[in-house]
Amino acid sequence: MEKDGKYEPLLLKNQLCFPTYAAANKIIRRYQPLLKQLDLTYTQYIVMMVLWEREKVNEKDLVQCLYLQANTLTLLLKKLKDKGYITISKDTEDKRNIVITLTEKGRQLKEKAVSVPLTLAQEPWFTVEEAILYKKLIYKILNDGKE
Predict the structure, then answer these.
(1) pTM reported for the whole predicted model
(2) How far apart are CA 33 and CA 42, in angstroms?
């Protein structure tokens, strides 16, 4: 091991990315058994959350909202459509735009899903104040330093 500290920036304990990555993995693993009961993956769940909020969304807006790549979203949407939770259609005014709409079956799933965040809110990770601060800091990273 070097004594001069030249490689200090490379130590895992000095990285911001590693604890962020590890924490995200831990949180998502905690979601998995709850989402399995809904027959959803985590990424399918976050798509559904947007649709439960908006009912109908343009694919480009969904990509931007979820910080996903369009090609990642395509397969997710197909699987959600196959499950009967959404419909996918071309915008009647602009055929280049894809519109995703929640189905009645997708609305019914919302009733089952409401327990997921309530269950996870009971985890002892943070106080309410810490959770608010954590979310604020993460969104600051996602938004390139803008609040």
Answers:
(1) 0.87
(2) 10
